[in-house]
Amino acid sequence: MLRVFDQETPASYKWKAIKSELTSRKSALEQQRKAVVDTARRNTSTLSDVIQHSGDWKVRKLGTDAYSISGYGLGWNDGLTEGTWTYHQSSKRAFPADAQSEALRKIIAGEF
Fold it and tell me: Measuring CA to CA, how many Å separate 79 from each of 51, 102, 109?
């Protein structure tokens, strides 16, 4: 029987127990990685679909720094829908302005 000695914790372990634990942890990490990759692919695909509709969006100025951007592809309701976002020029950030747009933001951010 092979025993492994850990000098930091003055303990020894049977190799079979360590191998089993490492195999179990590896499997869990592989499952987590697959979930992250699948989410990233879905998010990238959704964002690509959104960009395809950008030519039809309506943009109007709301003030000195803010713009409203609305149109198809900016919302989500079991698929792409109409949505509205508010873009702030100073921060170069856009924020959802309605429930459909917030749902799309969550899909793209992987928070669904």
Answer: 14, 13, 16
